[in-house]
Structure formats: C-alpha cells, structure tokens
C-alpha cells in the first residue's frame, strides 16, 4: 500500500470527509494525479465513496507569465518616465522597444502619462500594477472577480483549463484504515505451502469485458452469401439444393458460351466485354462428341430449331476466359448429369464472375452471382414463377413482377423485379428462364426433361442490406477494414 493511499485512509479515520482532492493534495504535498488514481482504486474496492467534479479554472499564458514576473508593460513604461521633468518618446522607444505603443494606449487611457511636443511626462505620482497583482493571484489559485477575468482574457494573458478531481470523499462500506491486499491468482506456491487457506481472494468481476478476440472476421458479402446458401439448402425442404463446384474462375468459351447456345458473333464474346486469357490462351480438352453436337445445333439447328445458319469455329470455342457468369458452371453440371441415367436435381452456386466493364459506383469488373436451377421432367414456366416467389419471399421480397426478356440460352426468359419499400419503386433483382432445347438436347438430357433457372448478383442485395451506396466501399482495395470488423450479422430469411 503506497504512501498516498495510507494518507487518504488515515485522514478519513479521524475526519468525516475530504472536501476536495485538489486542496487535499496541496495540503499534504501529494501529486494530484496520483491522488486521483488512488481515489479511483479505493472507490472500486468500496473503501471510500467520492464524487467526481470538473471545474473550469484559469492559468496564465506565456505572456501572462512574463507580466506576472516583470510587471505589465504599461507600468514599466510609467517607471521609465522620470518622476520630475520629461523624456522624449523616441528615447522611451529605444529603451523599451515595441511594447511602448501598446503600453502607451493604457497609460494614456488611465491618465498616467501625457505627451507634449514629443516629450512624455508623468501626470500622477504613483501607479498600481493591477494586472500583475491579478496575474499573481491567479497563479496562486485564488479567485478573482469576473471583470478582472474578462480583462485578462481580453488581453490574452490567461486561458481556460478544465480541472477534474473528487469532492466529498468519505468512508465507504468496506472502509478500513489499512487496505487488506487480496490475491488475484492461486499459485503453485500457495498450494504447496498451504497458504491458500489464509489468503483472501479477490472476487470475480463477472461484468468485466473480456479482451477482444483476435480472430478472422466475415466480410458482409460472405455473411449475405451464407444466408443465401441457407435459403437454397432449405428451399423445398424435402430435397435440398446441392452446391455446384465453382472453383474454376478460368473457363473455356465453350462452356461459358457455346454450350449455352450463345452465337459466336454475340457481342458479349468481344474482348470489350470479356477478359480473355493470354496464357494458356486455349483449353486443352473438350468432350469431342458433344462438341460435334453443339457445332451442329449452332450451324444448322435440330431438336425443332433452325440454329444460327453460320459457320461455327472450334478456335473460338477453345479460347480461355475469366467466366462471365456462373451459368458456365451450370452448363458443365448439366452435361455431367446427362451422361448418367436421369435423376431430377436441384443445384445452386454462389461465386465470382468477371466482366470487362468500366468501374463506377455501382459496377466492378468482378462481382458475385448466385444461381439456382431445377432439372426435372415436365417443368413449366408456372413452376419457375412459383419457385422464384418462394425463394424471394424468403429473402424478404414478397412482391415480384416478371418482365419478358432475352437470353440466348433460355426461352421463355424473364427479368425479375421486386418492389423496394424504402425506395418506393420496382427494382430489377435478377434474371431467369427455362433452358432451351438447343442447349439441353445436345448434352443428352431426355426430351421430356426441362430445366428452370435463375440468377442474381450478390452485391446489390448486400449493399441494400448494409446501407452501402458505393460498391467500392464494399469490395476491392478501397474497403475500410473497420467495415469488416464492425458490421452486424445478416438477418434475411428468418
Ligand atoms: N446468366 C444470367 C446472367 O448472367 C442469369 C441467368 C441464369 C439467366 C440462369 C437465366 C437463367 O445474368
């Protein structure tokens, strides 16, 4: 137990209170900061009770300090003028420097001095240095009147400081003139020597906050992705959606476009829209017989279609690219499914896609898509609409509208709009359709099998859910790490 603590506890043994920690510190020659710390500690152990107080006090500025030591410039000016006779103003300026002009203003106002024919002489015998007196009083911690304060403040000789300390410091419920030291840890020595039997242990503080855990934290996109996954996994409870493997960002044009009956002249296949790879610039293997069927359906149709009536080039299909949509993964999965005896399937994927786009506050060159598809016999557009309603209702979007649209690989196709209650308007949230026979039949899926599918971006709902209006604040090198550390859990679909 330190000296300060002993002094405080000892003082309270015979006195009912310590009225002021500042006064107490100067009376007992103690450091006030240390006294404050000891008071806080004793308060925590309930040895004492005390009230915290803040007071506004004044201290001297640098200039104020100077005047307190040397006297105010006006008095110095007065003293520089001889008691009898006079002195030339220029002489005074030589002696006292620049401060004369300033001091003269006061000396004249107080009628201490007068100036005649460039000669300065005294008009009074004695003057009192009120400024110095007040400054010394403030230095000693004494109280001076309001006018004095305003005057000194106006001359920039004093400044305000906040003082805090404690008042009415009294005995607390656990008061004792000496503080018992309690143990915080049970040590090996305590156990070996049996001293634990005598020791008094500090009580547990169950309200204390634990140290922050240094652990990995989820980005808002990952939190929303988790919620979406949960919805897919729970959608139509009896058969879960299986997640498709989305681990290859690099894809061939074949799976990204051709397998999806996207014509080779389609503008999306231009390098302005798609990132093509330099190395390796082409894919190594494709299933040859299937490639042959895809070529045929593009060139001359089949399965009730006329095709595109054009030359289909293998070199174009071989080109590697960064996949532009997760439908590339769906085409691989459906092809794989078609190679075995047919079983109905529900698949979903959520992962990154890339488009060669100008970056602005709502677009990035890479973003995330999620996609769901159901593959079964006899599915209709009504099934698609029903599934979409169920899916989006679980995301908290029960009001949907569908607008006819065009995708090379779906027919019919529908854009999905949801009514945004906050914005008070319909916003586009996704795209959907029934995969065309030109896509499914060459894969080898039976004729009566239909696939309904839909896709949507992950960023837009995340931005809405987390109130972010610039995509660059959500994703990329400009993201503030604080956003990752401090964002709430995502609560959709519950
Ligand atoms: N691939 C489409 C897109 O990128 C989304 C989509 C998926 C459309 C499945 C229809 C069916 O926007």
TrEMBL record:
<keyword id="KW-0436">Ligase</keyword>
<keyword id="KW-0963">Cytoplasm</keyword>
<dbReference type="InterPro" id="IPR002319">
    <property type="entry name" value="Phenylalanyl-tRNA_Synthase"/>
</dbReference>
<dbReference type="Pfam" id="PF18553">
    <property type="entry name" value="PheRS_DBD3"/>
</dbReference>
<keyword id="KW-0479">Metal-binding</keyword>
<dbReference type="InterPro" id="IPR045864">
    <property type="entry name" value="aa-tRNA-synth_II/BPL/LPL"/>
</dbReference>
<keyword id="KW-0030">Aminoacyl-tRNA synthetase</keyword>
<keyword id="KW-0460">Magnesium</keyword>
<dbReference type="InterPro" id="IPR006195">
    <property type="entry name" value="aa-tRNA-synth_II"/>
</dbReference>
<keyword id="KW-0547">Nucleotide-binding</keyword>
<dbReference type="InterPro" id="IPR040725">
    <property type="entry name" value="PheRS_DBD3"/>
</dbReference>
<dbReference type="InterPro" id="IPR004529">
    <property type="entry name" value="Phe-tRNA-synth_IIc_asu"/>
</dbReference>
<comment type="similarity">
    <text>Belongs to the class-II aminoacyl-tRNA synthetase family. Phe-tRNA synthetase alpha subunit type 2 subfamily.</text>
</comment>
<protein>
    <recommendedName>
        <fullName>phenylalanine--tRNA ligase</fullName>
        <ecNumber>6.1.1.20</ecNumber>
    </recommendedName>
</protein>
<feature type="domain" description="Aminoacyl-transfer RNA synthetases class-II family profile">
    <location>
        <begin position="344"/>
        <end position="488"/>
    </location>
</feature>
<keyword id="KW-0067">ATP-binding</keyword>
<keyword id="KW-0648">Protein biosynthesis</keyword>
<dbReference type="Pfam" id="PF01409">
    <property type="entry name" value="tRNA-synt_2d"/>
</dbReference>
């Amino acid at each position: 137990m330190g000296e300060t603590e002993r002094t405080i506890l000892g003082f309270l043994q015979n006195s009912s209170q310590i009225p002021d920690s500042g006064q107490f510190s100067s009376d007992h020659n103690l450091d006030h900061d240390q006294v404050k710390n000891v008071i806080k500690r004793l308060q925590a152990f309930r040895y004492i009770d005390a009230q915290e107080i803040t007071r506004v006090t004044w201290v001297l500025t640098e200039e104020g300090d100077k005047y307190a030591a040397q006297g105010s410039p006006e008095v110095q000016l007065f003293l520089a003028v001889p008691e009898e006779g006079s002195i030339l103003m220029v002489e005074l300026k030589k002696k006292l420097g620049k401060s004369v002009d300033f001091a003269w203003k006061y000396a004249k106002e107080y009628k201490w001095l007068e100036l005649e024919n460039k000669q300065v002489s005294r008009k009074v015998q004695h003057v009192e240095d009120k400024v110095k007196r007040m400054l010394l009083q403030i230095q000693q911690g004494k109280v001076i009147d309001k006018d004095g304060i305003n005057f000194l403040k106006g001359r920039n000789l004093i400044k305000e400081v906040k003082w805090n300390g404690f008042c009415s410091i009294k005995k607390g419920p656990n008061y004792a003139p000496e503080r018992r030291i309690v143990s915080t840890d049970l040590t090996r020595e305590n156990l070996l020597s049996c001293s634990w039997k005598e020791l008094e242990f500090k009580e547990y503080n169950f309200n204390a906050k634990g140290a922050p855990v240094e652990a990995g934290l989820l980005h808002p996109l990952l939190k929303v992705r988790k919620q979406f996954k949960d919805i897919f996994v729970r959608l139509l409870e009896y058969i879960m959606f299986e997640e498709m493997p989305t681990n290859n960002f690099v894809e061939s044009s074949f799976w990204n476009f051709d397998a999806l009956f996207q014509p080779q002249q389609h503008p999306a296949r231009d390098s302005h829209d798609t990132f093509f790879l330099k190395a390796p610039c082409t894919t190594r293997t494709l299933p040859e017989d299937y490639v042959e069927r895809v070529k045929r359906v593009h060139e001359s149709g089949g399965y009730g279609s006329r095709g595109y009536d054009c030359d289909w080039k293998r070199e174009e299909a071989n080109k590697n690219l960064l996949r532009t949509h997760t439908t590339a993964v769906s085409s691989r999965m459906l092809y794989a499914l078609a190679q075995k005896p047919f079983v109905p399937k529900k698949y979903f994927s959520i992962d990154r896609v890339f488009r060669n786009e100008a970056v602005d506050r709502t677009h990035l060159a890479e973003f995330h898509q999620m996609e769901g598809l159901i593959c079964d016999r006899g599915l209709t557009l009504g099934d698609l609409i029903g599934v979409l309603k169920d899916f989006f209702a679980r995301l908290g979007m029960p009001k949907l509208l569908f607008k006819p649209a065009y995708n090379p690989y779906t027919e019919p196709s529908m854009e999905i709009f949801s009514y945004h209650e906050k914005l008070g308007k319909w916003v586009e949230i996704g795209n959907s359709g029934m995969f065309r026979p030109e896509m499914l039949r060459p894969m080898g899926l039976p004729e009566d099998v239909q696939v309904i599918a839909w896709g949507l971006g992950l960023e837009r709902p995340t931005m809405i859910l987390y109130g972010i209006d610039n995509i660059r604040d959500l994703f990329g090198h400009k993201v503030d790490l604080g956003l990752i550390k401090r964002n709430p859990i995502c609560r959709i679909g519950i």
